[in-house]
Structure formats: structure tokens, C-alpha cells
Amino acid sequence: MSVQSIKRASGFSLMEMTIAMGLGTLVLGVALQLYSQGVSATWTVSQRAELQQDFRAASDMLTKDLSLAGSGLGNGTNIPLPSGTAPVYGCDQTPKCYLGSTNLVSGKYPLNGATPTLYGLMPGYTLGPTLTSNPAATDVVTVAYADTTFYLNCYQATISALGKVTFAPASAPAWPVGCLPNGVAAPQTVNDTMLGLTPGDLVYFPAWNMVGEVTAGTITTGTVTVSGINYPTYIVPFANGDVLNMNQTPAGATAGLNTVALNASGTNPVRLLVITYYIDNTVSPARLMRQISGHSPMPVTDGVVYMKFSYDLFNDATNLPAVNQPNPGSGDANDTASNGLNPTAITKINILHMAMDSTLHGAKGYQGLDLETSVSARDLTYSNAYPIGH
């Protein structure tokens, strides 16, 4: 009779299994923590990069517009505006105004004596909203300069009827010398769908030293024959009752565009860009807005939580500078050095703070940036008066 050996099958004891599971859980926990930290670091870096990109784009746009203040309008830009009803900025054709603590207020042009005046730069001290992130009211800033992308200066403007301006070639048989860049044969048509005049545009007429606002209505076209060559002519509405109060014909006050004599003509009109930067706090997070003339504002970037400016001026009468004035010419306690001066004396714009925050990832992803810089205003002053030592 044979005897068979029976081998016992080997295995893990309960204690061994417990130890193995504990070690495995520990390793998995460490790996998960490392992965979570890596994802969090990647998010923070990408969030920071996005914030920096948005901040750089916004600051570049703002500083570029500030540097162009008064460009194309001559040194010491000061265009008198109608004074019957105060002309305004910061409103569009809807109509709606966007400034103030509730974003429902318009901006008023500074006075030169008793006359509202359009300058190359117009400070808006505490004209913006007060945000929860900072107890002080934010500032607004408005610049004005000529639009060089639309060659309206090649046309001659004629007051053909009350509230109607006819644009036709300023010379014949070719377009005026010097109004077009090299390689360009003709200016854009006045009713061009991309660059032409639209309701809300502001046009400066140097011959009359006046600004008019294009109003709602059809830009009618016709053809005029000049020396055997057909040129287009355009009739553009500049009617009374416009949103920005530019076309008014008040009695006993500084006159508007519609008081110019019929059939009066003037060359070299230009489209005027009146650009206002302000913070819109009606949305969350608050955002920086850019509004042009009488058109609807467009967002520049989200997350702007503060914006403050000051200005350096130069007094030609005393040959002394007035630096770091938050509200120049106002007579405020902090602005006494600029008493009697107007925005034509501004030599430099100081961006004291343009702060941005990002909270896309809650408290863990919080990031912040703050722009502090100065921009020269080369087209504002009558002369470059910078005394040695200042």
C-alpha cells in the first residue's frame, strides 16, 4: 500500500495582509498628494500667466491711448463746445450713460471760463465707482485724438442744410496732396461699412473749430462731377437732440455745429476719438471698460479692482512745475499748485494704481498685479517746458 504525501498550500496570514494593505494605502496616499500638489501648482502657474497676459494687454492699451492724447489736433488742444445744455461724454446711442458710482452718470467737459471745452486729456477724479476691495472712489480718464485710419481729411465739409453736412472731394481732379499715405489712391467712402461714419461718431471741423456728432439717419450718396471725373458725395446727418449734446443750437450761449452758416465750407475734417476708461462694477468681477465717443463701451479685461491717476503740469507763467495733482485745476487742497491751470498744461499722466485680482480658483488661486507708471503727454502742452532740476 503506497503512502501519498500531501503538500499544504502556502498563503498570507491575516497580519501580513493587514500590513501590506496599510503600506499600499500609504504609498497611494503619498502619490495622490504629490499629484494634487502638481495639479495645483500647474493651475497657479497657468492662472498667473493668464492674469499677466490680460494685465499686459490692458495696460498696453491704456498707456497707448494716454500717450496719444491730443494727437492730430495740434498742441494745446482746446475746442469750445456748446454751452446751452452741457455736452457730455460716457454715453451711447441706446441711450445710456456709464460713469459714476452706479455706472449711470455722464461725464461733463471741463470749463474754460464759462465754456465747456474739449481738451486732449480730461481727468475724471473720483468719477468712477467705489469698489468693495477699496474704500476710495476710483478715477476715470478720457483722452481725445484724431483717427488716422479713416482719411476723412481728404474731404471738404459743407453745411448743406440745418443738421446736414455734405462731404465731397476737397480738390479736383485728384484727391488733395498729402491727405493720403503713400500707395493709397483714394480715401475710404464716408459710408464704408467697416471704417465709415456711423451714429455716435464725433467729427472735428477745424475751419469752424467745432465738433459735431453723427446722428441716426441714412447717409445719402450722390455723384458730383469735378473736371470730368466722377467723385462720390455724401450727406451725413448731424441733427439736434443728439445724445452727447454736440449739435445743439442754443440761444444766448456758445453755439454748436448747427449755427454754422449754410453753404459754409471747410477742409480737413477729422473723425475724433474721445476715449473713456472706467471700471464697471455692475458685473462680478468688476471689469475695465473702454468707450469711444458715443458708441457702446467694450470690456478690456475682468478683475480690475482699483484705478487712480495723478497729473504733472507746467506753469508757463511762473516757470514752475505742479506735480502729482490728482484733480488739476480744481482748487482742491491737494491740487493748489495747479490752480489756474487747465489740461493743456499737463505734461505727464501718472498711473498711481491699476490693480487686478484673479480669484478663478478661490482663495488657493488668488493672484494680484498692480501697474504703477507714468506716460508722457507730448501732444498736450504748447511747449516742451521741462526746467533743469525738476
Task: Describe the 3D structure.
- The protein is α+β, with helices and mostly antiparallel strands.
- The chain folds into two domains: 52-142 and 275-376, no CATH class; 152-271.
- It has one helix at 14-67; strands at 78-80, 88-89, 91-92, 96-97, 107-108, 111-112, 115-119, 121-124, 140-146, 155-161, 164-169, 202-205, 210-213, 220-226, 229-237, 265-267, 270-280, 287-292, 298-302, 304-315, 320-325, 346-358, 367-376.
- Strands 8, 9, 12, 13, 17, 18 and 19 form a seven-stranded antiparallel sheet that branches. The chain has a five-stranded antiparallel sheet with strand order 14-15-11-10-16, with no helix packed on it.
- The longest helix is centred in the first third of the chain and has 54 residues, at 14-67.
- 38% of the residues are buried.
- Residues 361-365 and 386-390 have low confidence and may be disordered.
